[in-house]
Amino acid sequence: MTETTYPPSADFKAKAHIDADTYASMYKASVDDPDAFWADHAKRIDWIKPFTKVKDVNFKFGEVSIKWFEDGTLNVAANCVDRHLATRADQTAIIWEPDDPKDDALHITYRDLHEQVGRMANVLKSLGIKRGDRVVIYLPMIPEAAYAMLACARIGAIHSIVFAGFSPDALGARVNGCDAKLVITADTAPRGGRKTKLKDNVNQALLHDTDDVKCLVVRRTGDQVAWRRDLDFWWHEEAEKVSADCPPEEMNAEDPLFILYTSGSTGQPKGVVHSSGGYLVFAAMTQQYTFDYHDGDIFWCTADVGWVTGHSYIIYGPLANGATTLMFEGVPTYPDAGRFWAVCEKHRVNQFYTAPTALRALMGQGNSFVEGYDLSSLKLLGTVGEPINPEAWNWYNDVVGQGRCPIVDTWWQTETGGHLITPLPGATATKPGSATLPFFGVQPVVLETESGKEITETEASGVLAIKDSWPGQMRTVWGDHDRFQATYFQQYKGYYFSGDGCRRDADGYYWITGRVDDVINVSGHRMGTAEVESALVAHAKVAEAAVVGYPHDIKGQGIYAYVTLMTGEDPTEELRKELSDWVRHEIGPIAKPDLIQWAPGLPKTRSGKIMRRILRKIAENEFDALGDTSTLADPSVVDQLIENRMNKG
Ligand code: WT7
After folding, report:
1. In the prediction, which pLDDT does 359 show?
2. Ligand 1 center from residue 454 Cα (angstroms)
3. Beta 134-138 vs 189-191: how paired, if at all?
4. 551, 593 in Cβ contact below 8 A?
5. Which residues carry the post-translational modification N6-acetyllysine, per the record (predicted)?
6. Which pLDDT belongs to residue 165?
7. Whose CA is nearest to atom 10 of ligand 1?
8. How far apart, in whole angstroms, are the C-alpha atoms of residue 182 and residue 136?
9. Residues with CB under 6 A from ligand 1
10. How far is CA 165 from CA 358, 399, 519, in A?
11. Could you tell me the distance, in angstroms and rounded to a whole number, from the CA of residue 216 to the centre of ligand 1?
12. Do residues 294 and 64 lie in contact, with contact meaning Cβ atoms separated by under 8 Å?
């Protein structure tokens, strides 16, 4: 097999922070003596009281405990804002590009950012928010989202961002889940030329038992909104009542910085808890090295702050490094499929980081949308969220990067806080489709799926686990440490289990093959099949549902739902649409099934467990690969499902 590899160009290598030799020696140091390595690298942030202890970690199931820099104190907002004032007060911290290209972009300097964050922090205090309280942020991609995050960090409140595309129910569940005292939202949010009624959604979410939750509302569009008397406050009015001066709270390294809900294979989404000190060190270090960020560069990560990518690589990593970070309110296809490249040209973007699903969608629109723009400022391209197919990789490389820009395919997770497996662009020869090699301090292992035995040969295939901790690792599931242990440390003892399958090639490169659990990856967003199922069965006409992923050209994976109706209900086209809209309404647009197949029965074992393996194969049209069906309670349901699949029923 011939495999194309792309070594770093001599030019790139010469200017890079890390070349191949440095990578090798630093990596070795990071695993030989993690304490010394991280004690040194933790100096990249400012500590109020320096730590004396670096790492205190136990991965043993039943005793899992993860602490980094545990006796150090710091303030994350002071690290992301105040400490840059001496040297970069007039430098742009955030470039904000609005949804509509006809509206003006904003250039927010570090001085401006300091003022806004201080004001927001004082507003939070005036609304009764104290250190340790939870604040839910349900905002579009506007600068106030950054102010809100940093304001929480400044006073030691814990933020939990809920992606603005989530439904009122999903929002309500998260507000309750972390017992938030305040929701920060906007009136309405323009995106791709359409508007989402965020404040209305908040009103619906807070209707029930949470009606003492306050709401701070940013006026984005000026649209009319319904007000909850005594509980709702306009940000622009409150901001005028307070000063911009708010001294940063001295926080412990292990105090939670934020909670971010993410889907798992079972049950409701879990609140991933990240720390202050370790998280910030890791986010900042990966932002600098993975993207080879240099002072003065313009960095653009296209994610939404509602996902971890936005936390680490729009806000915390770049701002801790004193970078200029671009925040984009819109979508890649509005007003047309050239928007990303128009923004790159307009703001002279140097590093551009996006998801394979966006690239596939844009690639399908043709090269003419790229070719009209001057992309000469681009130095590096990155991807995240799902495996990138070589076709999309090549298009990114040839058409967007014009063969000039290294591509970093970064593998990580909400749980990991930052990149774990990724090329370093001045050091690593890349191979299209491989996330390549571990970041400093990260020790990936490939385990045999069944036995859990570590495969020591270089060439290996199995499940991906990590041997030891890194500073950016999540610390617990909010309010449920047992679930944390059960999810990540129980099945494969002594390791952090990622939930992904992978292959390691003869060069030691890692190729992520996708989730091995009941989680599906739709357009780089994680969706639990159980969540979609419980939304479906909540519909009065649905008796039972089973959801699996199937290959989808643009989204990577699509959502395929098998639905058994209540006796007497007719399987009509209208009902199919009704159920799709229902899920959209219950969870949000990202959870909407792509295909619904009527299932008179589901393949179950005699003990009643649904055999998803079979459902996956049927969804993939691989009827010959169903495997053993003899243990089914009623093997004939399989024939019926296949027949329905072929008749598109
Ligand atoms: C899952 C994590 C981390 C930010 C975005 C998603 C998949 C992520 C890659 C990649 C192949 C990838 C994995 C992982 N994934 N990056 N470069 N190559 N797969 O965060 O929602 O926590 O999802 O996304 O399956 O487990 P997330």
Report:
1. 97
2. 22
3. unpaired
4. no
5. 609
6. 95
7. 411
8. 6
9. 262, 308-309, 384-387, 409-414, 435, 498-500, 512, 514-515, 521, 524, 526
10. 17, 31, 19
11. 32
12. no
In this prediction, residue 635 carries a pLDDT of 87
Closest CA to 479 of 164, 205, 269, 254: 269
Residues of each annotated binding site: 191-194, 309, 385-387, 409-414, 500, 515, 523, 526, 537, 539, 542, 584
The minimum-distance atom of ligand 1 relative to the CA of 263 is: 21
Ligand 1 pocket, mutate which of 261, 290, 383, 386 (most atoms under 8 A from CB):
386
Q: Which residue has the tokens 């063969």?
A: 403
Question: For residue 476, what pLDDT is reported?
Answer: 98
Low-confidence ranges of the chain (pLDDT < 70): 1-2, 208-210, 648-649
In sequence order, what are the beta bridge partners of 639?
none
Atom of ligand 1 nearest to the CA of 411: 17
- DSSP for 355-388? -HHHHHHHHTT-THHHHTS--TT--EEEEESSPP
Distance 263 CA to ligand 1 centre (A): 12
Ligand 1, atom nearest to 414 Cα = 22
ipTM above 0.90, yes or no: yes
In sequence order, which residues have a C-beta less than 8 Å from that of residue 521 and are 6 or more positions away?
385, 386, 514, 515, 527, 549, 556, 557
Structure tokens at 257: 């910085």
- Ligand 1 atom nearest to 355, measured from its CA: 5
Q: How far apart are CA 154 and CA 156, in angstroms?
A: 6
Cα-to-centroid distance, 107 and ligand 1 (Å): 31
Q: SS3 breakdown of the chain: % helix, strand, coil, rounded to 5?
A: 35, 25, 45
**Model pTM score:** 0.96
Look at residue 503 in the predicted model and tell me its pLDDT.
97
Q: Is 96 left (phi over 0), alpha (psi -120 to 50) or beta?
A: beta
Which residues pair with residue 271 across a beta bridge? 261
SS3 451: coil
With contact defined as beta carbons under 8 Å apart, do 299 and 293 qualify?
yes
Alpha carbon nearest to ligand 1 atom 1, residue: 413
